[in-house]
Every structure is written in C-alpha cells, then in structure tokens.
Amino acid sequence: MRTLLIFALLTFLCTSDFTPFGGSGGLFAQVLTVSDELTMRSDTEYDLIGKLGGQVLLLQDRDTKHLLTGFDRNMRQSWEKELELRGRNIRLLTSVAKQDGTGFHLLYLYRKSSRNYLQLDAYNPAGNLVDSTTLVDFGVFSTSPEREIYRSEDETKLLLLVTEQQSKVRCLSIDLQEMALGYDIEIEPEKFFFNDDFMQAELANDGTAYFVIERDNFKSKRKEHKYEVHTIKPSNEFSMFEVPMGDSLTYDIFFRYDNQNDRLTAAGLYTAKDFTRADGYFWITVDPNNPSAARPKFSPFPTALVRNIEGKRYNKKNPGIDEISVRNVVLRQDGGGLIITERNRQLERRSNASRTQVVTNFGIRPLVDYHYDELVVFSVHPDGAPHWSNILHKRQYSQDDGGVYSSYFLMENSRSLRFLFNDEIRFENTVSEYVVNGRGEFDRNSLFHTRDLSLRLRFRDGIQVAANEMILPSEHRNKLRLVTVTYEVK
C-alpha cells in the first residue's frame, strides 16, 4: 500500500552573506510519498531518470529487457512499457532527463553483425521514441573496453571515454540538444597507464573537456608532483598545461568546472610527509586563458577541528586527519566554494570462525565492515583563503553491503545545503539532516523513523528534481520502492 505522510519540521534558516545561499528563513513541513513495492530480479539494474511531465520515471535494465515505468503524483504505478532498443547485446550507458521536462535521452551500445555501435535515442515523458541516431561505428572490440561518462553542468553535453588499451583513451563529445557527435579524439599521453594515472575528467557547458592525469604523487618525487590537464575544445583544438603542487603530496582531489566564472577549479587534501593522514586542504583556480598562473592555496586544518575529530587519538606532534576523502565541491557565485569531505574506511575481517566469512560459488571470502563517519565542510574564498570550517557528526556502520545505505544525500537550494542520511544502517532507523547556511551555521534535525514505513533508503543514489524535492530509492530483500521527499513552506 502506498503511503502519504506529512511530518512537521521546524527549521530556522539564517540569511546567508553570500550566494548560492541567501533568502529568508521559514518553517518547513516534509511530505513523503512512497510507491508500491517492485520486485527486482537478481540481474536487474535500475536508473532513476527523474520527474518529467509531473510523473517519476524509472528505467529497469533486465539484461535482454528494458522496462520504463511511470509513477503519478501520488507515486502509484500508472503505466509500464518495454523499450524497443536497437540490435543485441545492449549495454546501457546513461540516461539524461531534459532540464525543461520535455523528455529524456538514452545512450547505449549495441551489437549488430559483430560490430559495435553507439546509439542515442530521445523519448518524451510518455516513453515514446521521438528521435534516434547512431553516433559511432566502433567496429569490433578486441577486448571489453573500459567506459566512463561525464556530463556538463547544464546536462546538454556528454563526454564518453573509451579505453581498450591502457596507454590511450578515445574521447567522444556528444551534444544532446543537437543529437550529434562533436569531437572524436584519441589521446595518448607520454608514460601513461589509464588505471594508474588517470584522475578525472570535467566537461564545460560549451563542450570543452578537461582530461586530468596525476604525475609523481609519491614521496621520492614530491618536488615534481603535478597534475597534467589535457584540454579538448569543440573546435577540435587540443592543448595541455600543468598544475604544480609544490612540495606537497595529494591525499585526495576533486575537480569541477565553474561555468559562471569560466574557471577550472580543484579542491583536495594534502599531506607533507606520507599518506597515513591529511595535514590540510587546498584550493586551485585555473583560468583557461592563462593556465600557467595556477597555483594551489594550501591551508592547514584548524587545530581545534582536528582535536574535535581525533579525540583521544589526537597527535600534537602530527595533527592531521586520517581516513578522509573529498566527496564533493559546491561552487559559489563569487568563485569560492565549499569542500565537502567525509571520513570513511573499510575493514576486512579474516578468521577461521565461520561468522566472519561468507561462502560463495567462488569459495570463501571475508566479511567487510563499512564505516562512514563525520562530514567535514571547508568554505574558501575565491583566492582559496579559509572562510570557515565545521564538523557534521554522524556515525554509520554496516557489514558486507557495499556501504550502499551509508554516506549522505546533498540537497542544494538558494537558502541552504541539506545533508540527509541514515542515523544507523538497519531496518528500523531514524533519518536525520543537517541544514547548513552560508556562514557555516547549522541545525541538526531528526526527520522521521523508518519503522512504520518499511524503508531502507539509499541516499547516495537519490536525485534532486526541484529546489525543494528529491527522489530516493529504498531496497530491502529484492523489493524496490521509490520515495519522494518534498519540503513545503508553512
């Protein structure tokens, strides 16, 4: 039975002193709408497309069958249809909802007469095919290629990376609005091995791609440590520049393209000695017209912050933070931003005792413990100088589940950032949130309990469909339910 519940949430939102935050505060209520259960087969993968034409669309990939399901405003299943895709051996790559809500695109590979093709289809919100084009004939793959996809911020462009050989990468730009292939360029950097050296790619709204390679990030060559950025423009112009990292080693890094200020930005964590713990954070801003001027701005962690996180493990001689990763970078309109980090670790338990091992068709494997703990947020000015920092405490533990119910979902709007998460990773659990404003002030709120709703929410796989609305999947024992969470001003 579908469930419609309203929870009153009293949340005061302070007016921010910089964008993207701003606006007045108010009282909010949440409306949760929960769909009926869908039985998921073991070979089924699913993709939340979004909310189009007032309905939520879910795509299910059942190997040889591809089902599109529509849910109405009350999350009742209103229709389902099988998509007739081309060829055989179909491998879905991604779906992208149009931002105007008029439909979505589906990108996939298929095989015909032993050749592999890249296909782009466009659908309306009712799941009817409105346009279709074959973008690339790849011919015969000698091996199963690795594939990675990046999308522009406005979701009008895609960048597909295809790697058959570790020493070279084929970069394909796809214009979704034009339903056409842009550049198709193969890059082969010197002394390059994809799995070891490739760091990340970023795609600007105009279709310019930035392909980032990490160089010499180890102790014996710390003075040579740098990032090598290969740039591909829509006009097929190709260039390369380097970002030196001084005497510091990179503990973690995350790149984002700032379309408003036309800058490539990067934020990360650094260490001065080794990779056992991070010593601080850094911020890099690259002007594409003058990339050689880019230099990282390093900031050590505030002592009080490290002491708060480490507790009894605090090391006065080496005050750093271990087991921490950069999860996201939120850009501000003034060119500054927020660096969102999270403490996490995985522990394998090996023992002769059967309770610490799992027997599979491939033998015995150890159990894995997943820990996802504090969120640490650093705000920086456009020049990289520190603005504020804060700790959002949480403690999540699970076993042998891939950590899929852990971590958080970030909801962005003009007034605040909302971090939603499961307090505990179990069936009966409280869902909580942190609401953070532009000055770093925050409130923690307990939102609802899942006991009466039969939910196990996967926050990491949620999508935001409006400034005040998100869709979250819930999975339990091969049963899938979709949940819309809407914040309404009271």
Walk me through the structure.
By secondary structure, this protein is mainly beta. The chain has a single domain (3-489), classed as 7 Propeller (Methylamine Dehydrogenase, Chain H). 2% of the residues lie in helices and 55% in strands. It contains two helices and 36 strands. The radius of gyration is 23 Å and the shape is globular. Mean pLDDT is 90; it is low at 1-25.
Walk me through the topology:
Blueprint: E1 3-9, E2 28-34, E3 38-39, E4 45-52, E5 55-62, E6 65-71, E7 77-82, E8 88-97, E9 104-112, E10 115-123, E11 129-139, E12 146-151, E13 157-163, E14 169-175, E15 180-187, H1 194-197, E16 198-203, E17 209-215, E18 226-232, E19 238-244, E20 249-258, E21 263-271, E22 280-286, E23 297-300, H2 303-310, E24 324-331, E25 337-349, E26 357-360, E27 363-380, E28 386-392, E29 396-399, E30 409-412, E31 417-422, E32 430-436, E33 442-449, E34 463-466, E35 469-476, E36 479-489
Antiparallel strand pairs: 1-2, 2-36, 3-36, 4-5, 5-6, 6-7, 8-9, 9-10, 10-11, 12-13, 13-14, 14-15, 16-17, 17-18, 18-19, 20-21, 21-22, 22-23, 24-25, 25-27, 26-27, 27-28, 27-29, 30-31, 31-32, 32-33, 34-35, 35-36
List descriptors:
six-stranded antiparallel sheet; disordered N terminus; 2 helices; globular; Methylamine Dehydrogenase, Chain H; 36 strands; single chain
Give the overall form: globular
**How many helices does DSSP assign?**
2
Instruction: Please provide the count of β strands.
Output: 36
Supply the number of structural domains. 1
Q: Rg to the nearest angstrom?
A: 23 Å
CATH fold call: Methylamine Dehydrogenase, Chain H
**Ends apart, CA distance between termini:** 28 Å
Class from secondary-structure proportions = mainly beta
What's the mean pLDDT score? Answer: 90
Beta-strand proportion: over 45%
Low-confidence stretches: 1-25
- In CATH terms, what is the architecture? 7 Propeller
Q: Helicity level, as a percent range?
A: under 10%
Q: Let me know the largest β-sheet.
A: 6 strands, antiparallel
CATH domain class name: Mainly Beta
